[in-house]
Amino acid sequence: MRTSKLLIFFIVLMFFSCKKEVKDIDKTEYMGYDYFPYNIGHELIYEVDSTYYDDFDIIQKEKKFHFYIKEVIESYFQDNEGRQNIRIERYKRDKDTDNWSIKDVWSGVITNTSAQRFEEDERFVKLAFPIKETQSWNGNAYNNLNSQTYTYKDLFVDFNIDSELYSNTVTVNQAEDTSLIHRNIISEVYAPKIGMIYKTYNVVKKAVNGDIISGSIYEYKLISYNMGTE
Prior knowledge:
By secondary structure, this protein is mainly β.
């Protein structure tokens, strides 16, 4: 009995030692490429809650939606620079019992210094490498939108989504700007080997009394994933 207890003690000790070692590497030497998965068959399913404020609709200004999004890395292809890109097929359904319907096709590419996604005909720099607190970059560097500074915060910490705990996550602040007449807050949370696990988007215009005039608010929460082939 004493031998069994001693064995359990050493196993627990080794577990926490290894966990600490991974976090130390993350903070000093780790580039962070595996926060942007590249495996064929990699699949993420999100539950999405969305509110849209329509300033042209007097009867129903606030419109709420609830649906599911599935993203699958379907294949690789070469871009005009000879880089291997990923083809990301995105599906949507309104209920978890409905069949999936193809929504759109996005793509992504990873370089030595960044991870980029082509979303809705615009290319965004989602991550910058190495991942570190002092890193900042223009998320719109490769599109025609206004310059937008992205930064990291809450590096290599646990993140909880409906009692599901993800370790060593990093948060990308894409926008954080508020005033009496507007709110512009956008951030994404990434987990290693999984990718984006959470997103909040809160971009609205407000009246002086605080009422929302227009804009949209939505939240993506990861509910399941499959890492695909290594």
